[in-house]
Amino acid sequence: MPGFFMDVQLDEQEREMKLESYAQGQVAVVTGGSAGIGLATAGLFLASGAAVAICGRDPERLAAAEDELRQRHPGAHLLGFCCDVLDGEAVEKFAQAVAARYGRIDILINNAGEGRSSTFSDTSDEAWRRELELKYFSIIRPVRAFLPWLKQSSSPSITCVSSLLAVQPEPHMVATSSARAGTLNLIKSLAAELAPFRIRVNAILVGIVESGQWRRRFRAQHEQPDWAEWSHGLALQKGIPWGRFGHPDEAARALYFLATSMSSYTTGSTVDVSGGLARHV
Ligand code: NDP
């Protein structure tokens, strides 16, 4: 830790670095990298010259994601590992596998998860426990498992995919909103505790991003028009000033900014990816 708190002077070369080169040669782990925001993020890091490890629970979805990423990025350094981020032992094995393959781990993106739609009256104790467990332990378990490696990196970061619901709760997603708020608090504490190791800890606050979970909600509706019409209508109904859902790539770019040294002086912070849906100042 000596020297950590000294001023950082950016040299010319660093100023002129191309966007892509911020992740060149680094090893990025993306939990839930087999679909949606996680898949887009894995693709962005691969395109930037990083080695990438992804995990997911469904082996077929994971294999399909690996195939897609390898096709788009021939010669990519990519590791797929089937595991549930709530399973501590499995996440440990994931960390060991990444370290064994690449010898280092620089970037952890905690993305795995999904939201839960239910009001207070509809949410049982068991549902509360499941939601709180998912939101907290999808951060806690990977952080614990990857921390020893992140501590050895010269440019380490942990970036969490959170939700605008953390700061702008919706009554129809009461448990998710409440759990997300709590984990933003956890992220602040982690940022302070891990600062002496130069590990930055941040989050993005996602509004609505087109992804697997929204496609599933769309399919569950009956007599709906096509996806574009449905999603546009919903964006307007939700009051998204941008008038559309976000694209997974748009969330991925915000993650890239926070996870790489492009944001070298940013920790314990959030970036909003909500098309203007955030109402707070
Ligand atoms: P998708 O459903 O498209 O992708 C979720 C990914 O996470 C899949 O790869 C899924 O694979 C994996 N996953 C889910 N649960 C677990 C688990 N317990 N262990 C390991 N992998 C898991 O979702 P999104 O891209 O939309 O969501 C990504 C994150 O963004 C989530 O945390 C979500 O809550 C958050 N978010 C998304 C919003 C949106 O509008 N899309 C809004 C606010 C927050 P598998 O199922 O095979 O495990």
TrEMBL record:
Gene3D superfamilies: NAD(P)-binding Rossmann-like Domain. It comes from the Bacteria. CDD domains: BKR_like_SDR_like. Keywords: Oxidoreductase. Belongs to the short-chain dehydrogenases/reductases (SDR) family. NCBIfam families: PRK07062.1. This is Short-chain alcohol dehydrogenase like protein. It comes from Frateuria aurantia (strain ATCC 33424 / DSM 6220 / KCTC 2777 / LMG 1558 / NBRC 3245 / NCIMB 13370) (Acetobacter aurantius). The lineage of its organism: Bacteria, Pseudomonadati, Pseudomonadota, Gammaproteobacteria, Lysobacterales.
